[in-house]
Specification:
Distance between the termini: 68 Å
Largest sheet: 5 strands, parallel
Radius of gyration: 21 Å
Structural class: alpha/beta
Number of helices: 8
Order of helices and strands: EHEHEHEHEHHEEEEEHEEEEEH
Shape: elongated
Strand content: 25-35%
Length: 264
């Protein structure tokens, strides 16, 4: 049996544990050299140009530049074969058309192995030329929203990890979301889940007809709002049907009133 061709791999992800996870999995594959590990879009662009890897594991959401912006900067013709990684399943269908494969975090060993073996086979058989055309089509999108394929396509479920297990949380069950440093806390009834995502990204990916960002650190499901509260001194809040009270920023209170007027 002919030994596998040596594969030079670049890992690009802003989460240290995610980079380590990929590195550990790649350690079990034969003839693999990790040429670089990067944690933001700018260093990823520099590393791709310097090391010219055979394969890139590329996180869609990174600081500096997103995964798509990295591809745009490198150019479709010069971009190495890609396996995209993401914490969400939105846009996966479109990205998958322009990549060898994709991984939704947190992924298991079997899913990684399937994606990696597919990548290795395509690279060894020199079947990646068509990906350049597909990348050009992806880059021609007029706006970030068009990446999802449909302008009105929003998140319907979010994968969260709890005690080593992956659970899918339907978005329609989420009561509200609170920022917690680089993470977001999802509240579903009396349960709380932690995901690594920015509120700005969540605000864009959640249906604005169902969710409203009441504060820079809070997003709430509109149909659960029971009362709008004007406190003395100009402080504002909402009370949910569950009894939970959340602060509303002054600049967003009027817009929330309008939103509630449309939905009641």
């Amino acid at each position: 049996m002919t030994p596998a061709k040596r594969l030079r791999v670049l890992i690009a992800d802003d989460e240290r544990l995610a980079r380590q996870r990929l590195e550990d999995l790649l350690a079990h594959e034969s003839n693999v050299e990790i040429v670089s590990r990067t944690d933001n879009g700018l260093t990823t662009i520099a590393a791709i140009r310097e090391f010219e890897p055979d394969l890139v594991f590329l996180d869609i959401q990174m600081p500096g530049k997103t995964g798509l912006e990295v591809v745009r900067e490198i150019g479709a013709n010069d971009m190495p074969p890609v396996i995209f990684t993401t914490a969400y399943d939105h846009a996966v269908a479109a990205f998958d058309l322009a990549a060898i494969d994709y991984l939704i975090k947190p992924f298991d060993d079997e899913r990684f192995e399937k994606a990696f073996r597919r990548a290795r086979k395509m690279i060894e058989l020199n079947q990646v030329a068509k990906l350049s055309e597909d990348l050009r089509a992806l880059l021609s999108a007029d706006s970030p929203q068009s990446i999802s394929g449909k302008k009105d396509q929003y998140l319907e479920r979010i994968a969260v990890e709890m005690r080593g297990q992956v659970r899918v949380v339907p978005v329609k069950q989420i009561d509200y979301l609170i920022a917690s440093g680089p993470y977001a806390e999802l509240y579903v009834g009396d349960k709380r889940y932690l995901i690594r995502e920015r509120m700005q990204t969540l605000e864009v990916r959640l249906d604005p007809a169902r969710f409203f960002r009441i504060h820079r650190s809070a997003i709430v499901r509109v149909d659960l709002i029971e009362t709008l509260i004007r406190n003395p001194g100009g402080d504002y809040a909402v009370q949910l049907k569950s009894g939970v009270k959340l602060k509303v920023s002054r600049s967003r209170f009027e817009k929330l009133e309008q939103q509630m007027g449309m939905t009641i």
